[in-house]
Amino acid sequence: MKPSSILPEAKAAGLFGRFPREGLVSLLVLAAVWETLAQLSPTLGIPPFAVPSFVRIGRSLLTVTPIDVAITLLRVLGALLVSFVLGMTLAMVMYLSETLERHARPVIRLLMAVPIISWILFAILWFRGVEFRVAFVLVIVCAPVFLVDALDSMRDVSRDWRDMLRSFRPTRVQFFTKLMLPATLPSILTSWKIVMSLAIRVVTIAELVGAVTGIGHQLNVAQQLFSVADVFAWTLVLVASLFLLEYVLTLAEARLLKWRPA
Q1: How many domains does the chain have?
Q2: pLDDT per residue over 133-167, tens digit each?
Q3: Pick from 99, 102, 88: which is nearest to 151 by CA?
Q4: Helix, strand or coil for residue 17?
Q5: What's the rounded Cα separation, in Å, for the pair 174 and 164?
Q6: Which CATH number do you get for residue 202?
Q7: Is residue 37 part of a domain?
Q8: DSSP designation for 14
Q9: pTM for the predicted model, two decimal places
């Protein structure tokens, strides 16, 4: 696929479009207020480390270790793939069995109601391996979101379409690959955007309390050293990583949904 065919959709998503003037002004005002506080902190009785200047934050950015960023992203992507496969598989099984859906839905809602910090504590108490702890927390939080969104999308597929395809007596595999998956693809991609943002926040908390590598661990080190500049630097890296993943997902969405009218 040529880049020119992706460009219209990407522009529509705001990736290559002009940055809103209001947004730029807001960011500049926020930056100016922060830098003013950093310069006036001694006069205002604020500890200098509490409001670091952008120069100090920039120095902290230069000390960011790429290996920790890569480890966090690999944890997120690996857990998201497992969560997606698990969620989609269970959604298809529950779609085929209304009895199973009626029994499983309360359990899924219960899992989604449990706070993230509780899952982290369970993981620490139940498992020894750090990587398995992080993966468990990510999957138990993200998989139900994929499951519920996919199942609801399948239920919303037009009955006429379903009856028409069933008239050709397809196999179950053909029923899902020829109708359900293409029809629910927009909703699935939206779920990926939501879950990706959720996973970035969850992995940081999980690494914060149990890992010895990754962005969350580095944030914990910065907190122990009372280095607000390092906290800002790693937070900026985390936000930039999320924007990068969303950018890649938006390009994939433009390619997969190129059949949709603009």
Answers
A1: 1
A2: 999 999 999 999 999 999 999 988 888 888 888 88
A3: 88
A4: coil
A5: 13
A6: 1.10.3720.10
A7: no
A8: T
A9: 0.81
Domain hosting residue 83, numbered range: 64-256
Higher pLDDT, 200 or 43: 200
CA distances from 121 to 70, 92, 128, 148, 207 (A): 25, 31, 12, 25, 12
Whether 14 is covered by a domain: the verdict is no
Give residue 102's identity as a one-letter amino acid code: R
Cβ 186 vs Cβ 130: under 8 Å: no
Mean pLDDT of 61-88: 94
Q: Does residue 17 fall inside a structural domain?
A: no
CA distance 260 to 216: 39
Tell me, yes or no, whether 43 lies in a domain. Answer: no
What number of other Cβ atoms are within 10 A of residue 199's Cβ? 26
Longest dimension (CA), the chain: 79
Q: How far apart are CA 116 and CA 213, in angstroms?
A: 20
Beta strands in 159-220 (DSSP E): none
Find out whether 210 and 133 touch, Cβ atoms under 8 Å: yes
